[in-house]
Amino acid sequence: MAAVTHQAQAIEVGGSRAVEAASDHELLAAIRDGDEVAFQEIVRRYRNPITNFVYRMLDDYDRSVELAQETFIRVYTSASRYQANYSFSTYIYRIATNLAISELRRRKRRKTVSLFSPFTNDDGEAIEIDPPDLNLLQDETLIQDERRRAVARAITSLPQKYRAAIVLRDVEGLSYDQIAETLRLSEGTVKSRINRARNLLKEKLSAYI
Amino acid sequence: MSCKYIQKRIDEADKPDLLPFDVSEHIGVCVDCQRFATERTALRALVAAGSRVTAPMNFDAVLKARLAEVKTRRSFWWLGSPALLRLGAATAGVVVAVFVVQFTGLFSNNVETPERSPLSEAAPRPVPAPFVNPPANPAPPPVTIAGARDHANTKPSRLRRSGIPVESAMPASFMTAEDGGVVLLRGRNGDMDVQMPTVSVGAQPLLYVTAGQRTTRTVGTSF
Questions:
Q1: What element of type H or E holds B12?
Q2: Could you tell me the residue range of the domain that residue A160 belongs to?
Q3: Using one digit for the tens of pLDDT, what is the confidence trace for A67-120?
Q4: Which of B22, B31, B86, B218 gives a 20 to 30 Å CA spacing to B42?
Q5: Cβ contacts (< 8 Å) between A72 and chain B: which residues?
Q6: Where residue A31 sits, what CATH number does that domain have?
Q7: Which residues from A are below 8 Å from B63, CB to CB?
Q8: Backbone angles phi, psi at A191, to 5 degrees
Q9: Contact A73 B67 (CB under 8 A)
Q10: How many domains does chain A have?
Q11: Check: complex ipTM more than 0.85
Q12: Which residues of A touch B77 (CB under 8 A)?
Protein backbone atom coordinates (compact mmCIF):
# COMPACT_ATOMS: atom_id res chain seq x y z
CA MET A 1 0.00 0.00 0.00
CA ALA A 2 2.86 2.35 0.79
CA ALA A 3 4.33 1.69 -2.64
CA VAL A 4 1.05 2.64 -4.24
CA THR A 5 0.99 5.86 -2.24
CA HIS A 6 4.46 6.73 -3.45
CA GLN A 7 3.33 6.05 -6.99
CA ALA A 8 0.41 8.41 -6.42
CA GLN A 9 2.82 11.12 -5.34
CA ALA A 10 4.87 10.44 -8.44
CA ILE A 11 1.74 10.93 -10.55
CA GLU A 12 1.22 14.36 -9.05
CA VAL A 13 4.78 15.32 -9.79
CA GLY A 14 4.75 13.92 -13.30
CA GLY A 15 1.70 15.82 -14.50
CA SER A 16 -0.98 14.81 -16.97
CA ARG A 17 1.27 12.53 -19.04
CA ALA A 18 2.07 10.51 -15.96
CA VAL A 19 -1.63 10.33 -15.15
CA GLU A 20 -2.41 8.88 -18.54
CA ALA A 21 0.31 6.29 -18.14
CA ALA A 22 -0.64 5.36 -14.58
CA SER A 23 -2.41 2.13 -13.80
CA ASP A 24 -5.89 2.06 -12.33
CA HIS A 25 -4.57 1.13 -8.91
CA GLU A 26 -2.15 4.05 -8.94
CA LEU A 27 -4.94 6.40 -9.94
CA LEU A 28 -7.11 5.11 -7.12
CA ALA A 29 -4.28 5.75 -4.67
CA ALA A 30 -4.00 9.30 -6.01
CA ILE A 31 -7.77 9.80 -5.71
CA ARG A 32 -7.51 8.67 -2.12
CA ASP A 33 -5.04 11.49 -1.59
CA GLY A 34 -7.48 13.97 -3.10
CA ASP A 35 -6.07 14.16 -6.63
CA GLU A 36 -8.88 15.44 -8.88
CA VAL A 37 -6.83 14.90 -12.05
CA ALA A 38 -6.52 11.21 -11.29
CA PHE A 39 -10.27 10.97 -10.84
CA GLN A 40 -10.83 12.70 -14.18
CA GLU A 41 -8.55 10.15 -15.80
CA ILE A 42 -10.52 7.27 -14.28
CA VAL A 43 -13.73 8.85 -15.57
CA ARG A 44 -12.21 9.29 -19.02
CA ARG A 45 -11.19 5.64 -19.16
CA TYR A 46 -14.42 4.10 -17.98
CA ARG A 47 -17.29 6.48 -18.74
CA ASN A 48 -18.15 4.92 -22.11
CA PRO A 49 -17.86 1.24 -21.12
CA ILE A 50 -19.86 1.78 -17.94
CA THR A 51 -22.54 3.83 -19.70
CA ASN A 52 -22.82 1.21 -22.41
CA PHE A 53 -22.97 -1.64 -19.92
CA VAL A 54 -25.73 -0.04 -17.88
CA TYR A 55 -27.57 0.88 -21.05
CA ARG A 56 -27.52 -2.74 -22.18
CA MET A 57 -28.89 -3.75 -18.80
CA LEU A 58 -31.67 -1.18 -18.70
CA ASP A 59 -32.30 -0.17 -22.33
CA ASP A 60 -32.83 3.37 -21.07
CA TYR A 61 -30.13 5.83 -22.11
CA ASP A 62 -30.92 8.74 -19.78
CA ARG A 63 -31.14 6.54 -16.73
CA SER A 64 -27.99 4.73 -17.82
CA VAL A 65 -26.06 7.99 -17.87
CA GLU A 66 -27.32 8.87 -14.40
CA LEU A 67 -26.34 5.48 -13.01
CA ALA A 68 -22.94 5.66 -14.70
CA GLN A 69 -22.36 8.99 -12.96
CA GLU A 70 -23.54 7.49 -9.70
CA THR A 71 -21.01 4.72 -10.22
CA PHE A 72 -18.17 7.23 -10.45
CA ILE A 73 -19.44 9.12 -7.43
CA ARG A 74 -19.30 5.92 -5.43
CA VAL A 75 -15.82 5.20 -6.69
CA TYR A 76 -14.73 8.65 -5.51
CA THR A 77 -16.44 8.57 -2.14
CA SER A 78 -15.27 5.05 -1.31
CA ALA A 79 -11.74 5.41 -2.67
CA SER A 80 -10.36 5.27 0.87
CA ARG A 81 -11.92 1.85 1.33
CA TYR A 82 -10.75 0.45 -1.99
CA GLN A 83 -8.52 -2.59 -1.70
CA ALA A 84 -6.40 -3.60 -4.65
CA ASN A 85 -7.24 -7.27 -4.35
CA TYR A 86 -9.06 -7.36 -7.70
CA SER A 87 -8.63 -5.43 -10.88
CA PHE A 88 -10.23 -2.02 -10.85
CA SER A 89 -12.42 -2.89 -13.84
CA THR A 90 -13.95 -5.71 -11.81
CA TYR A 91 -14.54 -3.29 -8.95
CA ILE A 92 -16.22 -0.61 -11.03
CA TYR A 93 -18.31 -3.09 -12.99
CA ARG A 94 -19.49 -4.54 -9.71
CA ILE A 95 -20.68 -1.13 -8.58
CA ALA A 96 -22.40 -0.52 -11.89
CA THR A 97 -23.97 -4.00 -11.84
CA ASN A 98 -25.34 -3.48 -8.36
CA LEU A 99 -26.81 -0.12 -9.34
CA ALA A 100 -28.36 -1.56 -12.49
CA ILE A 101 -29.85 -4.53 -10.63
CA SER A 102 -31.26 -2.19 -7.98
CA GLU A 103 -32.83 -0.13 -10.74
CA LEU A 104 -34.32 -3.25 -12.34
CA ARG A 105 -35.78 -4.32 -9.00
CA ARG A 106 -37.23 -0.87 -8.49
CA ARG A 107 -38.84 -1.03 -11.89
CA LYS A 108 -40.16 -4.49 -11.17
CA ARG A 109 -41.81 -3.22 -8.00
CA ARG A 110 -43.47 -0.51 -10.06
CA LYS A 111 -44.93 -3.29 -12.20
CA THR A 112 -44.61 -1.52 -15.49
CA VAL A 113 -46.07 -3.52 -18.34
CA SER A 114 -44.23 -3.42 -21.61
CA LEU A 115 -46.22 -3.47 -24.80
CA PHE A 116 -43.81 -6.12 -26.02
CA SER A 117 -44.03 -8.31 -22.94
CA PRO A 118 -47.47 -8.08 -21.36
CA PHE A 119 -47.35 -11.68 -20.13
CA THR A 120 -45.13 -13.43 -17.61
CA ASN A 121 -44.03 -17.01 -17.18
CA ASP A 122 -44.19 -19.13 -14.05
CA ASP A 123 -41.06 -17.44 -12.68
CA GLY A 124 -42.63 -14.02 -13.03
CA GLU A 125 -40.32 -13.07 -15.86
CA ALA A 126 -41.69 -11.23 -18.87
CA ILE A 127 -42.39 -13.25 -21.99
CA GLU A 128 -41.22 -11.35 -25.00
CA ILE A 129 -43.63 -11.07 -27.88
CA ASP A 130 -41.49 -10.21 -30.82
CA PRO A 131 -42.95 -11.60 -34.02
CA PRO A 132 -40.48 -11.27 -36.90
CA ASP A 133 -41.48 -8.86 -39.59
CA LEU A 134 -41.58 -10.92 -42.78
CA ASN A 135 -41.83 -7.93 -45.07
CA LEU A 136 -38.71 -6.90 -46.90
CA LEU A 137 -36.93 -3.90 -45.50
CA GLN A 138 -35.91 -1.20 -47.91
CA ASP A 139 -32.82 0.15 -46.33
CA GLU A 140 -29.81 -1.46 -44.74
CA THR A 141 -29.91 1.19 -42.03
CA LEU A 142 -33.40 0.18 -41.13
CA ILE A 143 -32.31 -3.43 -41.03
CA GLN A 144 -29.47 -2.65 -38.70
CA ASP A 145 -31.71 -0.54 -36.53
CA GLU A 146 -34.37 -3.20 -36.35
CA ARG A 147 -31.77 -5.82 -35.51
CA ARG A 148 -30.31 -3.66 -32.78
CA ARG A 149 -33.72 -3.06 -31.27
CA ALA A 150 -34.52 -6.75 -31.38
CA VAL A 151 -31.28 -7.61 -29.60
CA ALA A 152 -31.88 -4.92 -26.99
CA ARG A 153 -35.41 -6.15 -26.36
CA ALA A 154 -34.24 -9.73 -26.17
CA ILE A 155 -31.56 -8.87 -23.62
CA THR A 156 -33.89 -6.81 -21.47
CA SER A 157 -36.44 -9.60 -21.51
CA LEU A 158 -33.93 -12.01 -20.00
CA PRO A 159 -34.23 -12.85 -16.31
CA GLN A 160 -32.15 -10.47 -14.27
CA LYS A 161 -29.65 -13.06 -13.09
CA TYR A 162 -28.84 -14.04 -16.68
CA ARG A 163 -28.80 -10.53 -18.03
CA ALA A 164 -25.80 -9.20 -16.13
CA ALA A 165 -23.74 -12.27 -16.96
CA ILE A 166 -24.46 -12.26 -20.70
CA VAL A 167 -23.89 -8.50 -21.06
CA LEU A 168 -20.59 -8.65 -19.19
CA ARG A 169 -19.47 -11.58 -21.31
CA ASP A 170 -20.74 -10.93 -24.85
CA VAL A 171 -21.06 -7.15 -24.84
CA GLU A 172 -18.28 -6.00 -22.55
CA GLY A 173 -15.99 -8.95 -23.23
CA LEU A 174 -15.02 -9.73 -19.65
CA SER A 175 -13.48 -13.10 -18.86
CA TYR A 176 -15.30 -15.70 -16.81
CA ASP A 177 -13.21 -15.12 -13.72
CA GLN A 178 -13.73 -11.37 -13.94
CA ILE A 179 -17.48 -11.89 -14.23
CA ALA A 180 -17.37 -14.29 -11.31
CA GLU A 181 -15.60 -11.65 -9.21
CA THR A 182 -17.93 -8.93 -10.37
CA LEU A 183 -21.09 -10.86 -9.62
CA ARG A 184 -19.56 -12.64 -6.62
CA LEU A 185 -20.46 -16.02 -8.00
CA SER A 186 -18.49 -19.12 -8.71
CA GLU A 187 -17.07 -19.50 -12.17
CA GLY A 188 -19.19 -22.58 -12.77
CA THR A 189 -22.35 -20.66 -11.94
CA VAL A 190 -21.32 -17.89 -14.30
CA LYS A 191 -20.75 -20.36 -17.13
CA SER A 192 -24.08 -22.00 -16.47
CA ARG A 193 -25.92 -18.69 -16.50
CA ILE A 194 -24.27 -17.56 -19.70
CA ASN A 195 -25.12 -20.84 -21.40
CA ARG A 196 -28.74 -20.55 -20.28
CA ALA A 197 -28.91 -16.93 -21.39
CA ARG A 198 -27.58 -17.79 -24.84
CA ASN A 199 -30.13 -20.55 -25.23
CA LEU A 200 -32.90 -18.09 -24.38
CA LEU A 201 -31.49 -15.48 -26.75
CA LYS A 202 -31.27 -18.05 -29.51
CA GLU A 203 -35.01 -18.67 -29.19
CA LYS A 204 -35.84 -14.97 -29.18
CA LEU A 205 -33.51 -14.00 -32.00
CA SER A 206 -33.98 -16.99 -34.24
CA ALA A 207 -35.26 -14.75 -37.01
CA TYR A 208 -31.98 -12.83 -37.08
CA ILE A 209 -29.50 -15.68 -36.84
CA MET B 1 -15.62 -37.08 -26.31
CA SER B 2 -19.38 -36.60 -26.17
CA CYS B 3 -21.18 -33.91 -28.12
CA LYS B 4 -22.43 -32.39 -24.86
CA TYR B 5 -18.87 -31.88 -23.67
CA ILE B 6 -17.83 -30.42 -27.03
CA GLN B 7 -20.77 -27.99 -27.06
CA LYS B 8 -19.88 -26.93 -23.54
CA ARG B 9 -16.36 -26.13 -24.66
CA ILE B 10 -17.67 -24.27 -27.70
CA ASP B 11 -19.88 -22.22 -25.45
CA GLU B 12 -17.04 -21.40 -23.05
CA ALA B 13 -14.52 -20.47 -25.72
CA ASP B 14 -13.19 -16.96 -25.43
CA LYS B 15 -13.59 -16.39 -29.15
CA PRO B 16 -16.16 -18.47 -31.02
CA ASP B 17 -14.02 -18.68 -34.13
CA LEU B 18 -10.89 -19.78 -32.29
CA LEU B 19 -11.63 -23.22 -30.92
CA PRO B 20 -9.21 -25.76 -29.52
CA PHE B 21 -7.85 -28.34 -31.95
CA ASP B 22 -9.74 -31.33 -30.50
CA VAL B 23 -13.00 -29.39 -30.64
CA SER B 24 -12.40 -28.32 -34.22
CA GLU B 25 -11.58 -31.90 -35.11
CA HIS B 26 -14.87 -33.09 -33.62
CA ILE B 27 -16.82 -30.38 -35.40
CA GLY B 28 -15.41 -31.58 -38.69
CA VAL B 29 -17.09 -34.94 -38.28
CA CYS B 30 -20.21 -34.06 -36.24
CA VAL B 31 -23.02 -32.18 -37.99
CA ASP B 32 -24.91 -31.32 -34.80
CA CYS B 33 -21.89 -29.83 -33.13
CA GLN B 34 -21.01 -27.96 -36.30
CA ARG B 35 -24.49 -26.42 -36.41
CA PHE B 36 -24.24 -25.58 -32.71
CA ALA B 37 -20.91 -23.85 -33.26
CA THR B 38 -22.29 -21.88 -36.21
CA GLU B 39 -25.33 -20.74 -34.24
CA ARG B 40 -23.24 -19.74 -31.26
CA THR B 41 -20.86 -17.76 -33.44
CA ALA B 42 -23.74 -15.93 -35.12
CA LEU B 43 -25.49 -15.28 -31.82
CA ARG B 44 -22.43 -13.88 -30.12
CA ALA B 45 -21.69 -11.70 -33.12
CA LEU B 46 -25.28 -10.45 -33.12
CA VAL B 47 -25.27 -9.57 -29.45
CA ALA B 48 -21.86 -7.94 -29.61
CA ALA B 49 -22.65 -6.05 -32.81
CA GLY B 50 -25.27 -3.88 -31.20
CA SER B 51 -24.28 -0.27 -31.41
CA ARG B 52 -22.35 0.83 -28.38
CA VAL B 53 -23.64 3.95 -26.75
CA THR B 54 -21.23 6.53 -25.44
CA ALA B 55 -21.46 8.99 -22.62
CA PRO B 56 -22.95 12.38 -23.52
CA MET B 57 -20.79 15.45 -23.99
CA ASN B 58 -21.84 16.98 -20.69
CA PHE B 59 -21.11 13.79 -18.75
CA ASP B 60 -18.07 15.20 -16.95
CA ALA B 61 -19.71 18.53 -16.15
CA VAL B 62 -22.82 16.92 -14.69
CA LEU B 63 -20.68 14.46 -12.79
CA LYS B 64 -18.62 17.30 -11.36
CA ALA B 65 -21.75 19.11 -10.21
CA ARG B 66 -23.18 15.99 -8.62
CA LEU B 67 -19.88 15.26 -6.93
CA ALA B 68 -19.74 18.77 -5.48
CA GLU B 69 -23.25 18.28 -4.14
CA VAL B 70 -22.24 15.00 -2.55
CA LYS B 71 -19.18 16.60 -0.96
CA THR B 72 -21.33 19.34 0.53
CA ARG B 73 -23.75 16.79 1.89
CA ARG B 74 -20.94 14.75 3.39
CA SER B 75 -19.46 17.77 5.16
CA PHE B 76 -22.72 18.07 7.13
CA TRP B 77 -23.11 14.36 7.70
CA TRP B 78 -23.02 14.81 11.44
CA LEU B 79 -26.30 16.74 11.34
CA GLY B 80 -28.06 13.65 10.21
CA SER B 81 -26.16 11.20 12.35
CA PRO B 82 -28.39 8.87 14.37
CA ALA B 83 -26.49 9.54 17.60
CA LEU B 84 -27.03 13.27 17.33
CA LEU B 85 -30.69 12.81 16.51
CA ARG B 86 -31.11 10.55 19.53
CA LEU B 87 -29.38 13.07 21.78
CA GLY B 88 -31.57 15.88 20.49
CA ALA B 89 -34.72 13.85 20.97
CA ALA B 90 -33.68 12.91 24.50
CA THR B 91 -32.94 16.54 25.37
CA ALA B 92 -36.27 17.69 23.99
CA GLY B 93 -38.01 14.94 25.91
CA VAL B 94 -36.37 15.98 29.17
CA VAL B 95 -37.33 19.62 28.62
CA VAL B 96 -40.94 18.71 27.88
CA ALA B 97 -41.04 16.41 30.90
CA VAL B 98 -39.76 19.18 33.19
CA PHE B 99 -42.43 21.56 31.96
CA VAL B 100 -45.15 18.97 32.34
CA VAL B 101 -44.06 18.10 35.85
CA GLN B 102 -43.95 21.75 36.84
CA PHE B 103 -47.40 22.46 35.52
CA THR B 104 -48.90 19.37 37.07
CA GLY B 105 -47.75 20.63 40.50
CA LEU B 106 -45.30 17.94 41.48
CA PHE B 107 -42.87 20.66 42.40
CA SER B 108 -45.44 22.91 44.03
CA ASN B 109 -45.39 23.74 47.74
CA ASN B 110 -48.30 21.63 48.84
CA VAL B 111 -45.89 19.86 51.14
CA GLU B 112 -44.00 22.59 52.88
CA THR B 113 -40.46 22.10 53.92
CA PRO B 114 -39.52 23.73 57.17
CA GLU B 115 -37.65 26.71 55.88
CA ARG B 116 -37.36 30.10 57.41
CA SER B 117 -36.62 33.52 56.15
CA PRO B 118 -33.55 35.37 57.36
CA LEU B 119 -35.76 37.57 59.43
CA SER B 120 -37.32 34.67 61.22
CA GLU B 121 -33.89 33.05 61.63
CA ALA B 122 -32.49 36.22 63.14
CA ALA B 123 -35.36 36.81 65.49
CA PRO B 124 -35.82 34.70 68.59
CA ARG B 125 -38.14 31.79 68.30
CA PRO B 126 -41.54 33.36 68.44
CA VAL B 127 -43.93 32.32 71.06
CA PRO B 128 -47.37 31.67 69.72
CA ALA B 129 -49.53 34.73 69.87
CA PRO B 130 -52.36 34.73 72.33
CA PHE B 131 -55.34 33.40 70.55
CA VAL B 132 -58.58 32.52 72.15
CA ASN B 133 -60.45 29.75 70.46
CA PRO B 134 -64.16 29.82 70.48
CA PRO B 135 -65.63 26.81 72.20
CA ALA B 136 -67.36 25.75 69.00
CA ASN B 137 -64.05 25.30 67.12
CA PRO B 138 -62.02 22.73 69.01
CA ALA B 139 -59.16 22.31 66.47
CA PRO B 140 -57.36 25.57 65.70
CA PRO B 141 -54.50 25.40 63.20
CA PRO B 142 -50.92 25.65 64.37
CA VAL B 143 -50.68 29.21 63.25
CA THR B 144 -48.24 31.61 64.73
CA ILE B 145 -48.50 35.18 63.64
CA ALA B 146 -45.31 37.03 64.29
CA GLY B 147 -45.58 40.79 64.26
CA ALA B 148 -49.29 40.80 64.87
CA ARG B 149 -50.88 41.58 68.10
CA ASP B 150 -54.00 40.13 69.42
CA HIS B 151 -56.75 42.29 68.06
CA ALA B 152 -60.28 41.95 69.19
CA ASN B 153 -61.76 42.42 65.78
CA THR B 154 -59.82 39.72 63.94
CA LYS B 155 -61.85 36.82 62.71
CA PRO B 156 -60.13 33.65 63.86
CA SER B 157 -62.80 31.51 62.21
CA ARG B 158 -61.31 32.39 58.83
CA LEU B 159 -57.92 31.03 59.76
CA ARG B 160 -56.86 27.48 59.41
CA ARG B 161 -57.38 25.51 62.53
CA SER B 162 -55.60 22.76 64.34
CA GLY B 163 -55.78 21.20 67.73
CA ILE B 164 -52.62 22.72 69.10
CA PRO B 165 -53.27 25.03 72.05
CA VAL B 166 -52.18 28.59 71.61
CA GLU B 167 -49.70 30.27 73.95
CA SER B 168 -50.65 33.64 75.25
CA ALA B 169 -47.29 35.32 75.64
CA MET B 170 -45.81 37.50 72.89
CA PRO B 171 -42.41 39.20 73.03
CA ALA B 172 -42.47 42.97 73.02
CA SER B 173 -39.81 43.16 70.32
CA PHE B 174 -42.16 41.81 67.67
CA MET B 175 -43.05 44.13 64.89
CA THR B 176 -46.59 45.05 64.33
CA ALA B 177 -48.53 44.09 61.27
CA GLU B 178 -48.88 47.71 60.33
CA ASP B 179 -45.12 47.91 59.82
CA GLY B 180 -45.32 45.64 56.82
CA GLY B 181 -43.36 42.88 58.52
CA VAL B 182 -43.22 39.18 57.89
CA VAL B 183 -45.68 36.82 59.44
CA LEU B 184 -44.42 33.40 60.38
CA LEU B 185 -47.13 30.84 60.04
CA ARG B 186 -46.53 27.52 61.66
CA GLY B 187 -48.58 24.82 60.07
CA ARG B 188 -48.72 21.08 59.83
CA ASN B 189 -46.36 21.05 56.88
CA GLY B 190 -43.86 23.38 58.42
CA ASP B 191 -43.31 27.04 58.91
CA MET B 192 -44.02 29.64 56.30
CA ASP B 193 -43.13 33.31 56.00
CA VAL B 194 -45.83 35.58 54.72
CA GLN B 195 -45.21 39.17 53.73
CA MET B 196 -47.81 41.36 55.32
CA PRO B 197 -49.78 43.62 53.04
CA THR B 198 -49.43 47.32 53.44
CA VAL B 199 -52.26 48.82 55.46
CA SER B 200 -53.26 52.34 56.08
CA VAL B 201 -52.58 54.02 59.37
CA GLY B 202 -55.18 53.26 61.87
CA ALA B 203 -56.55 50.24 60.13
CA GLN B 204 -55.93 46.69 61.25
CA PRO B 205 -55.56 44.00 58.62
CA LEU B 206 -57.77 41.01 58.68
CA LEU B 207 -55.85 38.20 57.11
CA TYR B 208 -57.14 35.34 55.09
CA VAL B 209 -54.46 32.73 55.01
CA THR B 210 -54.78 29.59 53.02
CA ALA B 211 -52.59 26.82 54.25
CA GLY B 212 -50.03 25.72 51.76
CA GLN B 213 -49.91 29.04 49.96
CA ARG B 214 -47.57 31.89 50.54
CA THR B 215 -50.13 34.56 49.89
CA THR B 216 -52.37 36.58 52.09
CA ARG B 217 -54.91 39.17 51.27
CA THR B 218 -56.63 41.78 53.28
CA VAL B 219 -60.27 41.07 53.64
CA GLY B 220 -61.20 44.17 55.51
CA THR B 221 -60.24 46.52 58.23
CA SER B 222 -60.94 46.47 61.89
CA PHE B 223 -63.14 49.52 61.88
A1: helix B3-12
A2: 113-209
A3: 999 999 999 998 888 887 778 999 999 999 999 999 988 887 766 556 666 666
A4: B22
A5: 63, 67
A6: 1.10.1740.10
A7: 43, 69, 72-73
A8: -60, -40
A9: yes
A10: 2
A11: no
A12: none
